[in-house]
Give the backbone structure.
Amino acid sequence: MKLTIIIPVYNIKEYIERCVSSLGNISDTQIEILIIDDGSTDGSDIVCEKLSQTNKSVKVIHQQNMGLSEARNTGIRNASGDYIFFVDGDDYLSDGAVGYILNAINTCSDIYIIDHANVYDGIKKEIVEKKFKPNVSVMSGSEVLAMNGAISAWSSICKKTFLHDNNLYFTPNLIHEDFEFSIRLYSLAKSVEHLSVPIYNYVCDRAGSIMNSKNIKSAIGYATSAVLTRIFIRKHRFNKKQIRIISDVVSIGFTFSTERIDLLSKESDRKIVFDFYKNNLNDIIYFLWNSNLSHKFLAILLLINAKFGVNTYKRIRNFKKV
């Protein structure tokens, strides 16, 4: 088995068939499609079963609702393919994408990174190309992380043994889990190849998607990356350059978190986020201080007071934009 495509599903019955159909009519023994039904209650489970009956490559695993991270982890643990490709059930691939991938993954790199198109109202409005050194076929994961920042799980086709050997699974009960996962994934990867064709279509405007969420968990999810990544780097020997790269990405994630505060309507909700900052200030400061001058300045402001620091930093940034 060469490739396992993992599709997590939760209450998206109107999108699943489009997603699976976009993979093509492949009954080849080289691929399997694992649909992980994460306790759907809208009939998605029935749609998944019907798809498995009409396509021999499709296998369905039903589990109680545990969230996107655990759905993907179930897929990783049950995958038979040499490589694993995460595809979200509300997205879809371009024509011929799976055949293209099968032909490309022959050099045994840890990760193959792909380009994608952002889709709004059913129309591809923007092609997003990953940054890669010109005239270079293979880069280290750290180099890719430095050039691209955090990378969505569905942009990365990963060698299964690389995931297993490094215990690379998604953190349960975490919103924006891709962010933190990609830091660990690319920090450890020795070889990454770029498949410079936009074969993935990312649906940006679906109501109810995680990226469009406006809640406490969304704001805290990005900030939690600092806590989890600090634990991660203590377990590995990274040089100063790698620490700087990781710190830059984590710091950007923290600024994402501060921007999400503005989307919270209740003062009590904003207080919960600021309390999280205060309770985990040492980890947040560590990465800010090992990043650029702007992030070092934010670190100093946070040491004075978390709420004051965040609000002052955002006012200064907004002033510079004017």
Remarks:
- The CA atoms of residues 5 and 246 lie 28 Å apart.
